Amino acid sequence: MSYEAISWAWDTPAEQGTNTLLIDGMELGISPNMYRILSLLVPIRGTRLVWIDAICIDQTSSAEKQDQIPLMTKIYASAARVVAFPGE
Questions:
Q1: 63: pLDDT strictly greater than 90
Q2: How far apart are CA 10 and CA 46, in angstroms?
Q3: Other Cβ atoms within 10 Å of 66 Cβ, number
Q4: Looking at residue 16, what is its pLDDT?
Q5: DSSP secondary structure letters along 9-75
Q6: What is the pTM of this model?
Q7: Among candidates 57, 51, 12, which has minimal Cα distance to 31?
Q8: Sequence-distant (≥ 6) Cβ neighbours of residue 65 within 8 angstroms
Q9: Mean of pLDDT values over 40-53
């Protein structure tokens, strides 16, 4: 399965969840940087698989973060394309 991975600069905790993303009918709070990234990337080639740590790893679960963070090197290495977004 081919996917793109996004490497990005996290916002401050106060900015987390200030925008909303709708995924499979569920609302997810996202930061301004994440909103900018998605706004820039989505129109480029339409529908595709994208891996973003803030969305694909449950940020409210310490156990999931502990399991998934060590796998991030492999996730980025296995991606068809990695896009780096340093923020503003």
A1: yes
A2: 24
A3: 9
A4: 64
A5: ----GGGTTSEEEEETTEEEEE-HHHHHHHHHHHHHHSS--EEEHHHHS-TT-HHHHHHHGGGHHHH
A6: 0.75
A7: 12
A8: 57, 58, 59
A9: 76
Structure tokens at 76: 């980025």
What mean pLDDT, rounded, does the chain reach?
83
The length of the chain is 88
Average pLDDT over residues 3-30: 79
Q: Indicate the range of 11-15, 48-52, 60-64, 65-69 predicted with least confidence.
A: 11-15
Q: Which two tokens stand for residue 35?
A: 């909103």
Determine whether 28 is exposed, middle or buried from the number of CB atoms within 10 Å of its CB (0-12, 13-18, 19+): middle
What element of type H or E holds 4? strand 4-8
Find the farthest-apart pair of alpha carbons in the chain and give their distance in angstroms, rounded: 35
- Name the CA dihedral angle for 72, 74, 75, 80, rounded to a multiple of 10 degrees: 140
